[in-house]
Amino acid sequence: MSGVNWVGLAASLGLVLFVAELLRRGILRERFAALWVLVSTLLVGVAAFPGLLRWAADALGFELPANLLFFASLLFLLLVAVQLSFEVSKLEMRTRRLAEDLALLRAEVQDRPPARTEHPPAAD
Question: Among the four 4, 13, 56, 123, which has the fewest Cβ within 10 Å?
Fold first, then answer.
């Protein structure tokens, strides 16, 4: 293995540890973590066995293994962008619904007559 492969292996193992730490702390939700664990595992495999990338590039008809890597990266980033857009849309809809509910509750509270409070007579 060359020095570049060792750097790639160290970086991909670092990514695995980073994702595991984010999961442990509860910062990264499981839904998103599955994708990152899959990608980091694939990167560990490609870094540990560089022949896999060459074999996959040949099997899929790519001229260079780097072309396959760039294409896969582009697809991955597109998938992440679509997923994040979906999540933002869902959160925007929830925020709008909560704002509407809050406005209705405020209107209901303002329309109520003030509550009568009876004070007991003061003892002299």
Answer: 123
Q: Can you give the residue range of the structural domain that contains 85? A: 64-110
Q: 5 with 32, same domain?
A: yes
Report the distance separating Cα 71 and Cα 67, nearest Å. 6
- pTM score above 0.70: no
Sequential DSSP letters for 4-61: HHHHHHHHHHHHHHHHHHHHHHT-S-HHHHHHHHHHHHHHHHHHH-HHHHHHHHHHHT
Q: Is residue 54 part of a domain?
A: no
Total domains, the chain: 2
- Cβ atoms of 62 and 68 within 8 Å: the answer is yes
Task: Report which listed range, 33-37, 53-57, 79-83, 90-94, is most confident.
Answer: 90-94
73 and 43 fall within a common domain? no
